[in-house]
Design a protein that fits this description.
Layout: E1 7-9, E2 15-17, E3 21-22, H1 28-41, E4 45-47, H2 55-64, E5 73-78, H3 85-99, E6 106-109, H4 119-132, E7 138-141, H5 145-155, E8 161-165, H6 173-182, E9 185-189, H7 201-210, H8 214-224, E10 228-229, H9 236-244, H10 252-259
Parallel strand pairs: 3-4, 4-5, 5-6, 6-7, 7-8, 8-9, 9-10
Antiparallel strand pairs: 1-2
């Protein structure tokens, strides 16, 4: 029987798998093959973005898979040129056309881009799209607590998900605490990068103890804390390994030991300064 990832329920009731397939930096052809393979292996969540330039390929992979659309959770993200109420709608319609879908499970503002100061209007646009059923859930990516607070103050609505760079070297305690306070699900991108983390003695020792790989330890460290993650892999074997991380059960002490690798946020891209 195909193993499926458990789900977490977002604040507006949508069930989101805790582990999905990331597709950056695959091109259309690679992502089409990878998405179809992942779905056949048991993945039900796929993450892409306008900026990845592979939404058409992701859509092909979804179409090629023998799983009903209703059983899949598809996430994409849009760039700063669409920040605005009407822009968010256009971004959504563009993404649906490229993906060949008639609705999205989750649409994210990819970066806040506070320099142009239009992300609050983009958020208002997402809320309208959710009301109309074009998207099932609305969220953000790379938003800091200060950005999230502005959305809350302006609309009374917090994102259902905030996708952030989170790994054992950057545990993002302040942002995660804000998420928990406001019912926002934390989603980790690049959870096993930088790759140096996989050679850390504590990670290697835990992997040996559980008879699994260091990557599986780190992925389980993410999901056991209640976070969602979307590791990228084009390899069917690696995809299956990543999904099998959910079978590992770390102790509280092991989770704490991996978290102790935290180095702060020096290597995390500053979303006040960078964005697209």
């Amino acid at each position: 029987m195909t193993q499926l990832a458990p789900t977490v329920t977002l604040s507006h009731g949508t069930a989101m798998p805790v582990l999905g397939l990331g597709t950056w930096p695959m091109d259309d052809d690679e992502s089409a093959t990878a998405v179809a393979a992942a779905i056949s292996s048991g993945y039900r969540s796929v993450d892409t973005a306008e900026n990845y330039r592979n939404e058409r390929g992701v859509g092909r992979g979804i179409a090629d898979a023998s799983v009903p659309r209703s059983e899949l959770f598809v996430t994409t993200k849009f760039n700063k040129e669409w920040h605005g109420v009407d822009g968010a709608r256009q971004a959504c319609e563009n993404a649906l056309e490229r993906l060949g879908l008639d609705y999205l499970d989750l649409l994210l503002i990819h970066w806040p881009n506070p320099g142009q100061d239009r992300y609050v209007d983009a958020w208002r646009g997402l809320l309208r799209l959710r009301e109309e059923g074009l998207i099932r859930a609305a969220g953000t990516s790379n938003f800091k607590p200060a950005h999230l607070r502005r959305l809350l103050d302006a609309t009374g609505e917090a994102p259902e998900v905030n996708q952030i760079n989170l790994n054992p070297y950057a545990t993002r305690a302040e942002t995660v605490a804000f998420h928990r306070e406001h019912g926002i699900v934390t989603e980790a991108w690049s959870p096993i990068k930088p790759a140096d983390v996989l050679a850390e003695p504590v990670v290697v020792q835990i992997a040996e103890r559980h008879g699994c790989t260091p990557a599986q330890v780190v992925l389980r460290w993410v999901t056991q804390q209640g976070y969602v993650t979307v590791p990228k892999s084009a390899s069917p074997e690696r995809q299956r390994e990543n999904l099998a991380s959910l079978e590992v059960e770390l102790t509280a002490e092991e989770i704490e030991a991996v978290s102790a690798l935290d180095r702060g946020e020096a290597h995390v891209t500053d979303s006040d300064a960078f964005g697209h």
